[in-house]
Amino acid sequence: MNDQNTALIRSFYDAFARRDPDAMERCYHPDVTFGDPVFQDLEGRARVMGMWRMLLGRDGDIKVTVRDVAARDHDGAAHWTARYAFGKTARQVVNEVDALFRFEDGLIIRHHDEFDFKHWSKMALGRPVGLFFGWTPMFRATIRGRAMRSLEEFIDAR
């Protein structure tokens, strides 16, 4: 176990729970990369933090909790839960996420989140869309495309 890296992960999620993107950003290496089922490959602190700032700006009621935080010298993991009302549908979502981390220079250089996209789409979009289409590659590509366009617009507007 590496107590410093464990504390870094906890600091990141504590800041996330407080809706403090500046404190979240201080946990990231300038060359950080991020990926998840929606935002598959974001490179650099500006783009990764753009995503977090955009998401925090949209979900005024987001609640974040973290558990099972563990870290070694070069890698770590955590499980976190996000509870929020999703976009235009305002459907309640409880997203269970497994996070993996890599560290460099005492900061997070790689952050990868994994969650069940099909389960998420059923909660976020309901029936029939989420239930019948949430598992299809075309639907996933549509969601990813919309998310990336939103991120680009958000970054450009800043």
TrEMBL record:
Pfam families: SnoaL_2 (PF12680)
MF term (GO), any: isomerase activity
Stretches assigned to the SnoaL-like domain: 9-111
Ranges in coiled-coil conformation: none
Keywords, comma-separated and alphabetical: Isomerase
InterPro entries: NTF2-like_dom_sf, SnoaL-like
Name of this chain's protein: Ketosteroid isomerase-like protein
Organism (species): Streptosporangium album
